[in-house]
Amino acid sequence: MDGVHRAGMPGVYAEVRDAGRTWRGASGVADVWTGRPVSPGMRQRVGSITKTFTAAAVMQQVERGRIRLDAPIGGYLPRLVPGERGQKITVRMLLNHTSGIPDYIRYAFPSLKEFPSLPDISPESLDDNRFRQFSPAELIEMGLTAPAAGEPGATPGVYSNTNYLLLGQLLEQVTGTTAEEYITRNVIERAGLRHTGFPAGPRIKGPHSRMYEAFYGLIDPPRDYSVYNMSWVGPAAALVSTMEDLNRFYGRLLDGEIVNRSSLAQMQRTVPVIALDGTTIEYGLGLHKVGVPGCGTFWGHDGSAWGAGTVSFTRADGKRQMSVAINLMRWNKPDSSGKPQHHPIDDALETLYRQARCGDGNAQAE
Questions:
Q1: How much is the pTM?
Q2: Is 304 a catalytic residue?
């Protein structure tokens, strides 16, 4: 962790569990101006890790017979996804990102429309949207009216936050309460998490770090986005949590305590999905599978918000867990061709993740 800090990360903190033993640590600062240190118990915006919570909530409703995984979403939400598209796209396709519905973010943040072409974008809309209140319906419409990312059910799937906003609306439809309220009562509280929740406003309650966004060198020096209205992601990526809570959540989920074993088996059926960074990952229903040669198979998710990055993975046997938080994002500055350059932080994080997952420092992550 000290190596990650020395490589240029302001602050990094983590919790690792191994066969009943727990290690917590932190390195660096939560505030680059005051020098306030990070600590292991700080709260963090955990981004798309939220998707596992939302998927678990949907599976609970599948268990109760209120949702069918292979039923068309148009049958539940005919106004939001009308016509032939609504009949072709199933609930399962939303959960595993094979719906073909593209992500809405480049439309909600117009200055990012040409991403990943760095010379043609600016971070201007990050500031414009800091206190903007989005409705799920307007974000979903942005995704549905954009050019399709693929045919429904085709693989590889394409990762899209629009899918999980639709799942949030589905939960609201079948439970009669907001997705956030349902997830809080039936997933967060069921898992016994004390420091996890959806933010009520733009500020994070409790001890937390500032969140520094560099956006590939376009924001220099990096700007603090810890105060931000998270309505732009809602049940797709708005949760605040701690590393201890994340390990507890994934431990209990994979132990069959949040959804039943049959539901868990469905969540662990993976397909190839093209992630937002262009890499191909193995993705189930709100769960990401990572194989570490010589070290085992891990299940979990990663997530980012503006200025905050988090990873949380649990080995298939449940005995080894790691959750790591960082407070600087998109630190790779572009070269003359506009392609983000490799940075020492990348190597330092890979070393940390390898040590946290495997303990021996030898196994190579895929």
A1: 0.97
A2: no
